[in-house]
Design brief:
Layout lengths: L15 H18 L13 H16 L10 E4 L4 H9 L7 E4 L9 H5 L3
Parallel strand pairs: 1-2
Helix pairs in contact: 2-3
Length: 117
Amino acid sequence: MTCAYNTHAGSWMQSSSASLLEGEVIRWMCDQAGYPATAGGLFLSGGSLSNLTALAAARNARLSEQEYAIGTAYVSDQTHSSVAKGLRILGFRSDQIRKVPSDKNFVIKIFVWMFQP
């Protein structure tokens, strides 16, 4: 929506109307989803950047900076390639990214997979 008039919505000073529109739409979407008043978000240019941003937020919420090297990400064999690329950009090594198989209905059997010898 913020790109509808080719405006830059990077900050309030650069485009106050687009920034206001972004805030209002995000608040409306949070309300529709039943999120608390403290919830928020931002619009990004697409799915790849959105995945990268979400991965960085999740990593930072769960790991201290000293733990980054020992974190492990589990992804489905159906996960979009942008997720693995995002994890690599964030510094995850290949051995820290584990692909979990899914069945014919795309259900992840992670607990079965994790405990197999």
